[in-house]
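Standup notes, structure subgroup. Blocker cleared on the flavin-adenine dinucleotide input:
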Amino acid sequence: MSKEEENFQKNDNFKLTMIPGSFVKMMRTCILWQFIRFMVLNIKMLVVVSKSH
Amino acid sequence: MARLVVLGGGVSGHTAATFAAKWLGKEHEVVVVTPNSKWNWIPSNIWVGVGQMKKEEVVFELAPVYKKAGITYKQAKAISLNPEGSAKSNTPFVTIQYTQKGRVGESEDLEYDYLINATGPKLNFDATPGLGDGNGQMGNNTVSVCTAEHAVHASSELQKCIEKMKKGERQKFLVGTGHGTCTCQGAAFEYIFNIEHELKKAGVRDMADIKWISNESFLGDFGMGGLHMKVAGYVVSSKLFAESIYAERNVEWIIGAHTSKVESGKIEYELLDGTKGEESFDFAMLLPPFSGVGLKAYAPDGSDITEKIFAANGFMKVDAKYDAGDYENWKASDWPRTYQNPTYKNLFAVGIAFAPPHLMSKPMQSPNGTAINPTPPRTGMPSGIIGKAVAHSICDLILKGKDAHLHDASMAEMGAACVASAGKGLFTGTAAAMTVYPVVPDYEKYPGTGRDTDYTFGEVGLAGHWIKHILHHMFIYKAKLKPGWALIPE
Ligand SMILES: Cc1cc2nc3c(=O)[nH]c(=O)nc-3n(C[C@H](O)[C@H](O)[C@H](O)COP(=O)(O)OP(=O)(O)OC[C@H]3O[C@@H](n4cnc5c(N)ncnc54)[C@H](O)[C@@H]3O)c2cc1C
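Run returned:
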């Protein structure tokens, strides 16, 4: 059992949701991947901003 | 020469006043009346509240900025409006009371041609016994991050808890809403995860029990009835997204809760099913509910006409549909477009100061009749966009004449980008970067979710933290009116 799965046991509410695994967590702070996401998120946000003005 | 008076120098009022001054030029006067001497980038109070930023980094002096912009600045608070003037003159005026050092308590009747109410919220701590001090201020039992000063205090209390944990004393943290009708859950969400992040960094996470308490009927409601977004080929509810973050970070939750009483180290609450409970804490940050700041309005004969202009919650009535009735009848078109007061056409309200037509979330109450539902949020981006649109309308009314077309900025037709910090750190920080389009769900246009899922999304990561950090610098740069400020979108 991976470390992430331990939290499912800590609370009944936790059992009914999803918890990210180690790969997803690693990617959240992986500089290279996050730099790409930074570009993508900025473009997506700019589109929403431009639709709102 | 026309005079535009803007009440409130916060996010929406500052935006409105600075654009109006730029567009009107020197031939007309823009006056800002605001009780604070400093502008505060409120979203970064979260980082002040965990000791990751100094107060000085989130505030700056307003006077030099207004001087540069040619805006008349009065450090004062508005008390009442006389929209038809007095018995002596029919020119409308606002009565203000100075808060400026050396002039405290002095009052003035300030005449206006147009007035924007951008007074934001009254932090209504006293709505919950023990949350306030009985005199309208925060009490001693909990902390807050709603103002920069509150956040400094919250940070020092947090440090005390960290010291205790380092000495082996277990601590319990309770964060969320201090009343059944609170809004701004996003801010409390940010604070709880920033605390969790800091405790991890301090090496004391295993000594802490962290709990969320909120009036939302489900996690991820955020006062907007939740939202749906596309993730890995699915369209999922923000409930799943939010619950996942809490479970991952081992933060327990109590939802559908009205905090009914706060004492030292303990709260009492009532749940949507009518049951009551208690929760103990060593450290609690509970948001107060918001109301209007309590402006009064008078007719020339001195009679009270407050109800004509303001809704019961103290927010100003604008061009919204206030008689939409039950939840089943609510429509996106109930939401205001021009923010003009229906009775007095030279009065406008922007940002949190306008009275929304109804909630966005489904109205709920306990079997005991206690309302437990989030009131609608009006976050920074919509507040700024509305402030700018209203400034545009008033400039047109002044420059093109009274029949000029008013500019639209309906929250049912605009989106909002929201970046909720979940921990600060250049390489270790994370944030939930979200956009929602439109802010108010429109089930006629977007059947099913009420929103366009191509433009409604959320993702957690370091990139979100970088964006949040850049926004901090960008918006302070813009608010200081540095070169090119007007090009930065709200
Ligand atoms: C802790 C926290 C974090 C937040 N984080 C985010 C975020 O990350 N993103 C986001 O989009 N939004 C965020 N928000 C919400 C955002 O701060 C508000 O949407 C925004 O400030 C609303 O702008 P406003 O102009 O209506 O009110 P405010 O910015 O509150 O301005 C109101 C102004 O009116 C003044 N005033 C009060 N009474 C009077 C009076 N009688 N006369 C004259 N002036 C008066 C006040 O002093 C103040 O300057 C956060 C809010 C909080 C509390």
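Discussed briefly. Residues 177 and 460 of chain B are 23 Å apart (CA to CA).
Next: hand off to the docking folks.
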